[in-house]
Amino acid sequence: MYTSYFGLGEKPFSITPDPRYLYMSGRHAEALAHLLYGINESGGFVQLTGEVGTGKTTVVRTLLSRMPPHADVALILNPRVTPTEFLQSICEELGVPISDSERRSLKRLVDALNRRLLAAHGAGRRVVLIVDEAQNLSPEVLEHVRLLTNLETPTQKLLQILLIGQPELRELLDLPQLRQLAQRVTGRYHLEPLSRAETFHYVRHRLRVAGATADIFTAGALREVHRLSGGIPRVINVCCDRALLGAYTRETRKLNAKLVRRAAGEVYGRRFAPAWIGWAAAALAAIGAATVLFGSWRIWHGEASRAHATSTDDASRAAGTIARRSMAYGGAAAGPEATAAPPARIGPTIATPTGGSD
User: Fold this and answer.
1) pLDDT per residue over 157-192, tens digit each?
2) From 81's CA, which of 67, 200, 248, 314 has a CA 20 to 30 Å away?
3) How many whole angstroms separate alpha carbon 261 and alpha carbon 270?
4) What confidence tens digit (pLDDT) does each residue in 148-159 have?
5) Given its phi and psi angles, is residue 43 left (phi above 0), alpha (psi -120 to 50 degrees) or beta?
6) Are residues 148 and 41 in the same domain?
7) Looking at residue 283, what is its pLDDT?
8) Model-wide pTM > 0.90
9) Looking at the structure, do residues 72 and 161 belong to the same domain, yes or no?
10) CATH no. for residue 231?
């Protein structure tokens, strides 16, 4: 609907795992390298995990497009099956002919698969089993998967297994009953969400692949895309697709942050406030906390000052009382005899005549 309006040859943000749109971020490049390494190594398990929508399936599709010519691949997309159904699926993927009687026996299925692996090894070919959504495997099926790695020659394993799943796969392999399988995992990689810079490049990359010749999203819009999506590629695709549709209906060719927030609100079913409101709320909360702390300090400081003044006054009154009592005690101890003596006479003494005439 909006493709011709923006000069695009196709919708750039489809959620189908099209390898043409794979954005090779550093994380995705490392994930793909781990899987290619696993294919070329001799036996064991390689584990790739990541949150929902981080691009695991797209990486697998890219891997299939870059598969070495000497590799035969069995891809299992629905692992929520019984052990018998799981082995049947592997045989069907590898083109192993199995009779009705063999389909009902685990041992016969393993024997038929072993013959196929030995034939591939004799022809110089590698057989790779890729299990997507591997977190849905039951412990019982995983134990049978482990037993498949026992199919080997004196020099190498006959089957290489790639387990692709959500983070719950790591928890599943940590179970005590699966410790033997966990010890055979030779490579582990966890695919993280995109950073802000990678989100910018991701959106622009997909627009260029679809035929865009100029930037359609402003820098502020791209910042909102990363903030609201958390860097999850699938969520980025949904939000950007809805934002382009919204811009088309409003007849605007440049998408801003407000349009992205409105699109994300339609996707999530709730409204989103601008990022600055969160920062302002945090700043106000910090100012409020500082005000409360300062007020509390002022109250405490005032009470402490009054308490100090009161204690000083009390000490002064106590000292005065002690002084008065000391003076009073000293006067009472002298008694009535302790009256003051008349001052001594100063100068010569003149004798008074007692008698005689002139």
Assistant:
1) 889 999 999 999 999 999 999 998 888 888 899 999
2) 67
3) 10
4) 888 888 878 889
5) left
6) yes
7) 61
8) no
9) yes
10) 1.10.8
